[in-house]
């Protein structure tokens, strides 16, 4: 495949870029002006085109003749992204970018959505069954983009897979993400106070997520597809596992009263992804051990 990739400097996009180019796919990735691609210099099957979602380098993209577009770029700044008005810009830029890419010959589009497009339930979330109820600007804009692209795909004759990402973790994640925060606090000898110990999430190692994304990209699956493992882990178990690996079990305590948690059970029904042949390879304990080594050495 010749893949046009956005968000390639990010947590998920860079893992996908490494995997897809390593497997022999030609990947041309968008790089914003002034940004560095130092950790992934151009090599072999990958190269960078300078531009942004708002100002893509169309002449160069046309010359490359991509057949596939994987769209990962979005605003994700912790503490900001959920309600930022910037989400509306990203939805519009994404629609324009993908539709224009399809006019340039792209026939397969894989775009990244989010598990919080769903209405939360106390059972695994299923693509074609669980109602949608996006509560944040971020999730609403993602869902609006999915709707508009679904219509565009019907008109434009391209196939669209909409990947709902669950909770990726691992090396390269933002330092304010849950696992990294816990590791850093424990490494400093600080107490980790759990406000929502029962909160249950579907954590997926970043390398497993990249492999899932490549599996979907290579398939002809269309519509929404959950990218999660199907396995829920409580925040308590996560914290105890990290603390156990670091020999700091006594530093994990639970708050006297639990905080309200609108996302108390967010676990994928992964049947659709599993049916494509993908299997998770990295156990939580192993993935966390790698992250701890990376952050503490
Ligand atoms: N990580 C998660 O837990 C999670 C969960 C659900 C869904 N997702 C979705 O997965 C996708 C990737 O997330 P991530 O965690 O990898 O995010 P990330 O690490 O913050 O990466 C975001 C990427 O988007 C690029 N970008 C931002 N604004 C851009 C613009 N105007 N034009 C072109 N590129 C731009 C960034 O480039 P720069 O390096 O130039 O800033 C970066 O490469 C997003 O669509 C996100 O909504 C992530």
Mean pLDDT: 96
CATH architecture of the largest domain: 3-Layer(aba) Sandwich
Report the C-alpha radius of gyration, rounded.
Answer: 19 Å
The outline comes out as globular
Number of strands: 14
Q: How many DSSP H or I helices?
A: 9
Helix content estimate: 25-40%
- Give the structural class: alpha/beta
* Strand line-up of the largest beta sheet: 3-2-1-4-5-6-11
CATH superfamily placement of the largest domain: NAD(P)-binding Rossmann-like Domain
What gap, in angstroms, lies between the N and C termini? 38 Å
List all distinct small molecules, including ions and cofactors, that are bound in this structure. Answer: NADP nicotinamide-adenine-dinucleotide phosphate
Which CATH top level class of the largest domain fits?
A: Alpha Beta
CATH topology of the largest domain: Rossmann fold
The H/E string reads EHEEHEHEHEEHEEEHEEHEEHH
The main pleated sheet reads as: 7 strands, parallel
The quaternary structure here is single chain
Proportion of strand residues: 15-25%
Poorly predicted residue ranges: none
């Amino acid at each position: 495949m010749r893949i046009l990739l956005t968000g390639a400097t990010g947590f998920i996009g860079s893992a996908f870029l490494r995997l897809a180019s390593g497997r022999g796919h030609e990947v041309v990735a968008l790089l914003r002006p002034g940004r560095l691609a130092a950790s992934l210099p151009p090599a072999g099957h990958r190269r960078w085109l300078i531009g942004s979602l708002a100002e893509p380098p169309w002449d160069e993209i046309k010359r490359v003749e991509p057949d596939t577009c994987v769209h990962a770029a979005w605003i994700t700044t912790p503490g900001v992204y959920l309600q930022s008005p910037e989400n509306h810009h990203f939805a519009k830029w994404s629609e324009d970018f993908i539709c224009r890419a399809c006019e340039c010959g792209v026939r397969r589009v894989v775009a990244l959505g989010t598990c919080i497009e769903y209405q939360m339930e106390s059972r695994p979330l299923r693509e074609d069954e669980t109602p949608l109820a996006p509560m944040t600007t971020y999730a609403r804009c993602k869902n609006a983009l999915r709707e508009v692209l679904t219509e565009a795909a019907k008109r434009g004759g391209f196939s669209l897979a909409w990947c709902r990402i669950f909770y990726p973790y691992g090396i390269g994640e933002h330092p304010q993400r849950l696992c990294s925060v816990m590791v850093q606090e424990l490494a400093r000898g600080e107490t980790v106070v759990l406000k929502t110990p029962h909160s249950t999430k579907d954590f997926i190692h970043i390398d497993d997520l990249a492999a899932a994304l490549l599996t979907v990209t290579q398939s002809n699956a269309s519509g929404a597809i959950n990218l999660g493992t199907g396995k829920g882990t409580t925040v308590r178990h996560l914290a105890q596992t990290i603390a156990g690996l670091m020999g700091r079990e006594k530093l994990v305590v639970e708050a006297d009263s639990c905080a309200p948690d609108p996302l108390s059970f967010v676990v994928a029904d992964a049947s659709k992804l599993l049916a494509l042949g993908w299997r998770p390879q990295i156990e939580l304990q192993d993935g966390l051990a790698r992250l701890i080594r990376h952050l503490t050495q």
